[in-house]
Amino acid sequence: MTTTVVLADRLLPAVTALRRAVRRRTRERLGVEHLPAGRVELLRAVEELPGAGVGAVARRLRLAENTVSTAVRGAVADGHLVRRTDPADRRAVRLELTGAARERLQRWRTARSELVEAALGRLPDADRTALEAAVPALERLLDAVEGEP
């Protein structure tokens, strides 16, 4: 196998497992019910694009509008999102986070940061340096993957 194949075979499972472990441990620390990863991504996208419509959120998430529309219905039902009619165009709907969603996202961010910061503190300096240096490369890898036809 080529080096890039070996790297891909090791990198992707490691990143996925890290993400899952951080989510699980953060949920345990906060004592909150599980929110599917897609729901959390939806809430973050609406937070980044306040007042955006489903189409703009779908583009941000790189998902089909009908997929996002379904997720929005669930987030509205569970009290995390509010749909408001656009006063300038009564046919358009604007999405906003509820206060409960804002508070949950902030608590989540704080708990997640504390968890990862503590874990990083238990690593040797060389590992922390390597991880810090890897972040820009991972961001470029994301761009390269997203840029693929």
Question: β content, as a range?
Answer: 5-15%
Structural class: mainly alpha
The tally of beta strands, per DSSP, is 2
Overall mean pLDDT = 92
Order of strands across the main sheet: 1-2
Helix percentage range: over 70%
H-E order? HHHHEEHH
Computed Rg: 18 Å
**How far apart are the termini?**
24 Å
Number of helices: 6
Shape: globular
Which consecutive residue ranges, at least 5 long each, have pLDDT under 50?
Answer: none
The major beta sheet can be summarized as: 2 strands, antiparallel
Which terms would index this structure?
mainly alpha; two-stranded antiparallel ribbon; 10% strand; 2 strands; 149 residues; 71% helix
Short structural summary:
The protein has 149 residues and is mostly helical.
Description:
This protein is mainly alpha-helical and 149 residues long. The protein is built from 6 helices and 2 strands, in the order H-H-H-H-E-E-H-H. A hairpin with a 2-residue loop joins strand 1 (81-86) and strand 2. Helix 2 crosses helix 4 (65-77) and helix 3 (54-61) crosses helix 4. It starts with a helix and ends with a helix. The mean pLDDT is 92.
Write the layout of secondary structure elements.
Blueprint: H1 3-30, H2 37-48, H3 54-61, H4 65-77, E1 81-86, E2 89-97, H5 99-121, H6 125-146
Antiparallel strand pairs: 1-2
